């Protein structure tokens, strides 16, 4: 059987950068899973404790925000992955600062709500 040599693809010129891009994408996916996991843990802990109406409302808000933040993280990381793949191949890479600031703001919001819940309502 005769082996045919495959032609290098555009992506193969920048293998290390593409692999780093994939690792970054997977890290964002793990982050979104962790956000949801922490929210479910918090909801389960809240259900087992005595609670008032305010703490129940805050836990529901945190749960809803965690789902929204997790979905945003997945969508934005997928978009960022595709854009960065193109930018790597074209050698026009630019960091995605607005995306980082947006996701960081959402995470700070939910972390603040977690802190408020744990330190004042438990």
From TrEMBL:
It comes from the Bacteria. The keyword Cell membrane applies. Residues 17-84 form the DUF202 domain. InterPro entries: DUF202, IM_YidH-like. The chain crosses the membrane at residues 25-45, 57-79, 99-119. It is found in: Cell membrane. Keywords: Cell membrane, Membrane, Transmembrane, Transmembrane helix. It is a multi-pass membrane protein. Pfam families: DUF202. One of its GO terms (cellular component) is plasma membrane. PANTHER family: DUF202 DOMAIN-CONTAINING PROTEIN (PTHR34187:SF2), FGR18P (PTHR34187). This is DUF202 domain-containing protein. The lineage of its organism: Bacteria, Bacillati, Bacillota, Bacilli, Bacillales.
């Amino acid at each position: 059987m005769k082996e045919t040599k495959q032609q290098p693809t555009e992506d193969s010129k920048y293998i290390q950068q593409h692999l780093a891009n994939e690792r970054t994408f997977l890290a964002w996916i793990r982050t979104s899973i962790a956000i949801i996991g922490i929210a479910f843990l918090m909801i389960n802990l809240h259900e087992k404790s005595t609670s008032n109406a305010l703490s129940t409302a805050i836990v529901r808000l945190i749960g809803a925000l965690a789902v929204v933040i997790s979905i945003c993280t997945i969508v934005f990381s997928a978009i960022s992955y595709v854009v960065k793949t193109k930018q790597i191949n074209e050698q026009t890479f630019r960091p995605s600062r607005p995306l980082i600031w947006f996701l960081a703001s959402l995470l700070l919001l939910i972390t603040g709500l977690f802190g408020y819940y744990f330190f004042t309502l438990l």
